[in-house]
């Protein structure tokens, strides 16, 4: 099987690909489907973009885990790729077994693509995180091995912000407890320690896509807004940035966390922080499970310091749906469940039809663009590089992609290799130690492709060479 990380070495394969490239638009099926395309008249425009590929698209193997939305599956299948779809994540041993054979993997927040796993991924070209968070992937290792990573940076932000608004009201009114009681036949009509949210202060930690969206919604409901962020962020409406985490904790009636998982945010809210919070205040965490020290939360709620909490994320989460949220998974599970006024949801902040459909399209589009064109726009670990699509008017063009260590002298060596050819366009950029070069070369013959590829592969700076044509 021709690997997309490699260019085919025999001329027949090359010439087949050159002549079979359909005038496909972005979502169109590829070479294997070109006959039906021809007959449907879709190849009439000679300036249509030429789909680039040094491989038969049917050879591309994609593994989609964690119930990636149908929209994403459809886009990938329309390309003619082989797509295997699983509803849940996989344990490490099974993941390692599968990842050896595939070129593309699509995941959400549960699948851990660690260095140990990625070391086995010898054919892996690209990772699609069909979510916002990318903390589950070793981005640095991936970049150092020429594996691009894409995500969907804000398609589910609104869904998370709306969930948090609902939780603020539910906590203020102890609605979770009242509903549970009714489910057990108990009528318990109380107003003690139930509040309106109007006029209360919401403290947002992390004022990025979700935090700022939440700010807009909460202000519309009459809340006062303060936020803390390591960056100076533009305040929206009448929100006010406070200089320290403690300042926020001391002033807020509700605290909502919207930071990424980083070493700095691990146990960001622990005993000391609960002490700073107002007595009778509330905590909401829909960011990552490592951000809150849960045993400290349990203590703070038992003491009455914290009047309620909503958790959507946990340090350990099950790989799939089922009866798994127990004390084996997280040892404090029973203690947490025994608390009053605590809303526990199974990481559903971004789980709406709207968000999942949009994420499916956005990430699958990015994958197709990368596989077929080498375009890295939106990559979270490689430099963002794009060039216009080649057209069918440019039949003997090739796109050279060279991912390399960012060391002096590489461009000179690459251009020596390309010197005998006409380089139409060339662009290069770097991100830390890794650089990404794209060059469109014309007047290319089949035998040139192998020569260029072998010469680039021989350079000591090489991470990955791809030639698309
Ligand atoms: N529950 C869910 O289903 C769900 C859905 C989407 C995202 N998330 C989580 O929410 C997180 C935030 O998402 P986002 O889209 O708003 O991210 P974002 O990158 O747009 O915003 C994060 C903000 O946090 C700030 N920040 C980083 N470290 C900080 C620190 N130590 N102290 C204070 N501020 C800090 C950043 O400067 C940034 O402004 C994601 O990383 C993801 O883990 C959860
Ligand atoms: O990072 C995210 O987008 C959220 O945590 C949602 O993750 P999920 O797609 O696994 O629900």
UniProtKB/TrEMBL annotation:
<dbReference type="Pfam" id="PF02826">
    <property type="entry name" value="2-Hacid_dh_C"/>
</dbReference>
<keyword id="KW-0560">Oxidoreductase</keyword>
<feature type="region of interest" description="Disordered">
    <location>
        <begin position="1"/>
        <end position="26"/>
    </location>
</feature>
<keyword id="KW-0718">Serine biosynthesis</keyword>
<dbReference type="GO" id="GO:0061759">
    <property type="term" value="F:2-oxoglutarate reductase activity"/>
</dbReference>
<dbReference type="InterPro" id="IPR036291">
    <property type="entry name" value="NAD(P)-bd_dom_sf"/>
</dbReference>
<keyword id="KW-0597">Phosphoprotein</keyword>
<dbReference type="GO" id="GO:0004617">
    <property type="term" value="F:phosphoglycerate dehydrogenase activity"/>
</dbReference>
<dbReference type="InterPro" id="IPR029753">
    <property type="entry name" value="D-isomer_DH_CS"/>
</dbReference>
<comment type="pathway">
    <text>Amino-acid biosynthesis; L-serine biosynthesis; L-serine from 3-phospho-D-glycerate: step 1/3.</text>
</comment>
<dbReference type="GO" id="GO:0006564">
    <property type="term" value="P:L-serine biosynthetic process"/>
</dbReference>
<dbReference type="InterPro" id="IPR045865">
    <property type="entry name" value="ACT-like_dom_sf"/>
</dbReference>
<dbReference type="InterPro" id="IPR006139">
    <property type="entry name" value="D-isomer_2_OHA_DH_cat_dom"/>
</dbReference>
<feature type="domain" description="D-isomer specific 2-hydroxyacid dehydrogenase NAD-binding">
    <location>
        <begin position="166"/>
        <end position="349"/>
    </location>
</feature>
<protein>
    <recommendedName>
        <fullName>2-oxoglutarate reductase</fullName>
        <ecNumber>1.1.1.399</ecNumber>
        <ecNumber>1.1.1.95</ecNumber>
    </recommendedName>
</protein>
<keyword id="KW-0028">Amino-acid biosynthesis</keyword>
<feature type="domain" description="D-isomer specific 2-hydroxyacid dehydrogenase catalytic">
    <location>
        <begin position="62"/>
        <end position="381"/>
    </location>
</feature>
<dbReference type="Pfam" id="PF00389">
    <property type="entry name" value="2-Hacid_dh"/>
</dbReference>
<dbReference type="InterPro" id="IPR029752">
    <property type="entry name" value="D-isomer_DH_CS1"/>
</dbReference>
<keyword id="KW-0520">NAD</keyword>
<dbReference type="InterPro" id="IPR006140">
    <property type="entry name" value="D-isomer_DH_NAD-bd"/>
</dbReference>
<feature type="compositionally biased region" description="Polar residues">
    <location>
        <begin position="12"/>
        <end position="22"/>
    </location>
</feature>
<dbReference type="GO" id="GO:0051287">
    <property type="term" value="F:NAD binding"/>
</dbReference>
<comment type="similarity">
    <text>Belongs to the D-isomer specific 2-hydroxyacid dehydrogenase family.</text>
</comment>
<dbReference type="InterPro" id="IPR050857">
    <property type="entry name" value="D-2-hydroxyacid_DH"/>
</dbReference>
<comment type="function">
    <text>Catalyzes the reversible oxidation of 3-phospho-D-glycerate to 3-phosphonooxypyruvate, the first step of the phosphorylated L-serine biosynthesis pathway. Also catalyzes the reversible oxidation of 2-hydroxyglutarate to 2-oxoglutarate.</text>
</comment>
């Amino acid at each position: 099987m021709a690997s997309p990380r490699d260019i085919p070495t025999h001329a027949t394969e090359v010439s087949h690909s050159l002549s079979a490239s359909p005038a496909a638009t972005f979502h169109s099926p590829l070479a294997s489907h070109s006959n039906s395309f021809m007959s449907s008249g879709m190849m009439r425009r000679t300036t249509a973009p030429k789909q680039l590929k040094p491989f038969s698209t049917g050879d591309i193997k994609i593994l989609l885990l964690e119930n990636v939305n149908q929209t994403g599956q459809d886009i990938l299948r329309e390309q003619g790729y082989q797509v295997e779809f699983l509803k849940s994540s996989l344990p490490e041993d099974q993941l390692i077994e599968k990842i050896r054979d595939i070129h593309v993997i699509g995941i959400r927040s549960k699948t851990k693509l660690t260095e140990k796993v990625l070391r086995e991924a010898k054919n892996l070209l690209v990772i699609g995180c069909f979510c916002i968070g990318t903390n589950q992937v070793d981005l640095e290792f991936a970049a150092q091995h020429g594996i691009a990573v894409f995500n969907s940076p804000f398609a589910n932000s609104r869904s998370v912000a709306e969930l948090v608004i609902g939780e603020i009201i539910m906590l203020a009114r102890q609605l979770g407890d009242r509903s549970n009681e009714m489910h057990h036949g108990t009528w318990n009509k109380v107003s003690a320690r139930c509040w309106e949210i109007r006029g209360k202060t919401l403290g947002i930690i992390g004022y990025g896509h979700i935090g700022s969206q939440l700010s807009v919604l909460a202000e519309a409901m009459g809340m006062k807004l303060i936020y803390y962020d390591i960056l100076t962020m533009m305040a929206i409406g009448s929100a006010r940035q406070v200089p320290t985490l403690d300042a926020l904790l001391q002033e807020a009636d509700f605290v909502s966390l919207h930071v990424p998982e980083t070493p700095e945010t691990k146990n960001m809210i622990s005993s000391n922080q609960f002490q700073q919070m107002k007595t009778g205040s509330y905590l909401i965490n829909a960011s990552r499970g490592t951000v809150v020290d849960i045993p400290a939360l349990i203590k703070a709620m038992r003491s009455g310091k914290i009047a309620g909490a909503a958790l959507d994320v946990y340090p350990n989460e099950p790989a799939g749906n089922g009866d798994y949220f127990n004390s084996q998974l997280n040892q404090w599970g029973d203690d947490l469940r025994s608390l009053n006024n605590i809303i526990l949801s199974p990481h559903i902040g971004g789980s709406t039809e709207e968000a999942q459909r949009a994420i499916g399209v956005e990430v699958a589009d990015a994958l197709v663009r990368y596989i077929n064109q080498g375009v890295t726009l939106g990559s979270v670990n490689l430099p963002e590089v794009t060039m216009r699509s080649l057209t069918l008017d440019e039949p003997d063009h090739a796109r050279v992609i060279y991912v390399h260590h960012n060391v002096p002298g590489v461009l000179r060596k690459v251009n020596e290799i390309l010197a005998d050819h006409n380089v139409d366009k060339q662009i290069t950029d770097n991100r830390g130690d890794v650089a990404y070069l794209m060059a469109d070369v014309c007047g290319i013959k089949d035998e040139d492709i192998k020569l260029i590829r072998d010469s680039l592969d021989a350079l000591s700076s090489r991470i990955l060479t791809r030639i698309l044509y």
